[in-house]
């Protein structure tokens, strides 16, 4: 996995050829050293509509497809 690839879980499939994916990242607070969780949502292009809600997917960055969508699906890990 390179720097422009991410793994996330599909949370919405209401749009045509687009899925909404959430990515979880953990980091440590600088002062208090508590582990914090940051959630970020991405719009991913799914040309064949093969994803469903709850799938774990691998996606990569590409040229902009629309205003908010600049990620494309590579692989579906779990159904």
Automatic annotation (TrEMBL):
SUPFAM superfamilies: Nucleic acid-binding proteins. One of its GO terms (cellular component) is mitochondrion. CDD domains: Ribosomal_uS17 (cd00364). GO terms for biological process: translation. One of its GO terms (molecular function) is structural constituent of ribosome. It comes from the Eukaryota. The keyword Ribonucleoprotein applies. Keywords: Plastid, Ribonucleoprotein, Ribosomal protein, RNA-binding, rRNA-binding. One of the primary rRNA binding proteins, it binds specifically to the 5'-end of 16S ribosomal RNA. Belongs to the universal ribosomal protein uS17 family. This is Small ribosomal subunit protein uS17c.
């Amino acid at each position: 996995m390179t720097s422009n690839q991410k793994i996330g879980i599909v949370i919405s499939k209401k749009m045509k050829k687009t899925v909404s994916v959430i990515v979880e990242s953990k980091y440590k607070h600088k002062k208090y050293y508590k582990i914090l969780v940051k959630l970020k949502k991405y719009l991913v292009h799914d040309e064949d509509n093969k994803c469903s809600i709850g799938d774990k997917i691998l996606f990569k960055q590409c040229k902009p497809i629309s205003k908010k969508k600049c990620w494309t699906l590579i692989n579906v890990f779990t159904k």
